[in-house]
Amino acid sequence: MSVEKSAESILKENSDLFEGIGELEGYHHIELNKSINPVIHPPRRVPVALQERLKSEIERMEKLGIVEKKREHIILRRQEEITAKLAGAKYLSKLDASSGFWNIKLDDESSNLCMFNTPFGRFKFLRLPFGIKSASKVFHKAVCKILEGFNGVESFIDNILEWGCTKEEHDKILKEVLEQIRTANLKLRRDKYKIGISEVTYFGHRYKREGLKIDDNKVKAITEMKSPTSKKELERFLGMVTYIAKFVPKFSSNTAVLRDLLKKDVLFQ
């Protein structure tokens, strides 16, 4: 037997050494500099075209035991990301959760913290009440978990947006989404749903087959605002007009003089 064939035979007998990922004995402990406070970095923006590849790689690493999914921080899609994902969408649908927060039950300890008095007696909430500071985040996270893994779906608190490039694709995703919602026992508003339409307002923006458009209601609200008479009112005005920034040429330079009025050493007049 030649040296080459002998080596190949040895490698074949030990083929298991060339599969998977190893796991050496013991654990490594990372020493932290206690003078430095830990930080949480927001997720880096990933081009839509690469998101599936990234997701596949993370899922592969999960299966190999390299990473483990922990408690998620609430991630809201940027408007630009949603617009990019909607490219080519011809059919749009919008669903609204019914009595959003009340879909979530409270444990006994939390329920006892949510009591209120009335002339008719003392009551406590058994469901997540409106007005709790964390309620929006809690419910948004719950809906995101329900819709996790779906393509052609976005959610923001109690609003769910679904789309497809063809009627067949749209209807298939819609049926799967509704079935998942039924399994999770989430309820929807019958008076608010819009199915298979070509234009929808979502998260304060108008999405159409042709692309992103200005929401007329937002523009009307801006044009009907009174002229600011204080820095606080100016901040509110700039916050409103920033919505249309992407539609206005030279927006930054045109509003520079207004932003300068917000500086501490500048007198508002």
UniProtKB/TrEMBL annotation:
**Signal sequence, renumbered to the chain:** none
Q: Which residues form the Reverse transcriptase domain?
A: 73-206
Q: Which domain of life is it from?
A: Eukaryota
CDD domains under this entry?
RT_LTR
Q: Kindly provide the name given to this protein in its UniProt entry.
A: Reverse transcriptase domain-containing protein
